[in-house]
Design a protein that fits this description.
About 25% of the residues lie in helices and about 35% in strands. The chain contains ten helices and 20 strands. The longest helix has 18 residues.
Length: about 375
């Protein structure tokens, strides 16, 4: 096991296409770090540069105390798990898991021990004589994990390993990977476009967009204190609501005016307003931080769609100027075409600069107090 460090890592493809732009990461020994972002953001390219499958244009990659920029992938002491499993179809599960060890000319008895230990850990000891075509998707993914585990590498690299599984299997395998990491404690970099995977697996998460790390933090820090509108909108299901308007001052109090309603802001909003050019702003609030009640509320709205999800429901509403998404308890009496009042949890709301996307409400916000 080892630390992994990327310093000023940049990847430029022919035609001056910048896929990864000056990425700096320090992944601690035994840490599970998730790289998350939309397709084309550079997360897989970053992982492949750590693995040695892509050449680094600028910057340095270290695994442990070794600079590995010019080290071939097979000599980097890493094990990679891909989304397509990459199993040899003509080999049994045992031979697939043992193949890399045989190439390293490891003694037969040690290969047996490692393969059987990994198979037991993953619950596939009864599948060792089968070939991949006789396995389910979840079983194939366990074999791919087992092949990585037997190598006992300094670091695991996962490139969207659950993308080919159905929703139920993804949940099960996510839990398996989580348990596996706790047991083995191997330094892990995990790439996904799925925010739920990122939030549930990562000790820390690096959110990427256009080749740049937008924010690196713990899952709850990212969710509660996003540094910009991109991070705020990327994490959360349904995503954060964004409403354009102005910050106004009346009788010493500050309000956000969205066109049809004025939402009172906390006293510290004076500092937020001073950071906004022309006091134009984007108000951000998550669906669970909007309460639906009787009129009048901080804003009045009409219910357009109700989606029951069992323990809760997603409610789509519209004010005179904006559409919003709310979460409500499943037992609440809300129906399409109802006229309702909306109340906002201002302590959980954010204000973003409409030009830069920067979260101006973070700068002067102390957790839990004004």
């Amino acid at each position: 096991m080892a630390e992994v460090a990327l310093e000023n890592v940049t990847k430029i493809y022919p035609g001056d296409v910048v896929a990864v732009d000056n990425v700096n990461l320090d992944i601690a020994d035994k840490e599970l770090l998730v790289l998350v972002g939309p397709s084309g953001c550079g997360k897989s390219t970053t992982l492949r540069m750590v693995a040695g499958l892509e050449e680094v244009t600028r910057g340095t990659v270290r695994i442990g105390d070794r600079l590995v920029n010019d080290v071939p992938p097979k000599d980097r002491d890493i094990a990679m798990v891909f989304q397509n499993y990459a199993l040899y179809p003509h080999m049994t599960v045992y031979k697939n898991m043992a193949f890399g060890l045989k190439l390293r000319k490891m003694p037969r008895h040690e290969i047996d021990t490692r393969v059987n230990d990994a198979a037991t850990l993953l619950g596939i000891q009864d599948l060792l004589d089968r070939k991949p075509k006789a396995l389910s998707g979840g079983q194939r993914q366990r074999v791919a994990l087992g092949r990585a585990i037997v190598r006992q590498p300094a670091a695991f690299l996962f490139d969207e390993p659950l993308s080919n599984l159905d929703a139920k299997l993804r949940v099960e395998m996510r839990a398996e990977i989580n348990k596996l990491h706790r047991r083995l404690g191997t330094t892990t970099i995990y790439v996904t476009h799925d925010q739920v995977e990122a939030m549930t697996l990562g000790d820390r998460i690096a959110v990427m967009h256009k080749g740049i790390i937008q924010q690196l933090a713990t899952p709850l820090e990212l969710y509660d204190r996003p540094v910009n509108r991109f991070v705020a909108g990327f994490l959360g299901t349904p995503p954060m609501n964004f409403v354009s308007g102005r910050v106004e001052e009346h009788d010493g109090k500050f309000f956000f005016n969205e066109g049809s309603a004025r939402i009172e802001l906390p006293a510290r909003a004076k500092k937020w307003a001073d950071a906004l050019p022309g006091r134009e702003a984007v108000f951000g609030v998550r669906p669970e931080d909007i309460s639906i009640g009787a009129r009048p509320g901080s804003a009045d709205a009409k219910v357009n769609v109700v989606e029951p999800l069992g323990d809760e429901m997603i409610v789509y509403v519209s004010t005179s100027y904006h559409d919003l998404v709310c979460k409500a308890p499943s037992h609440q009496d809300v129906a399409v075409d109802d006229e309702v009042g909306l109340t906002f949890n201002i302590d959980k709301a954010h204000l973003f600069d409409p030009e830069t996307g920067k979260n101006v409400s973070l700068v002067h916000r102390d957790r839990g107090r004004d």
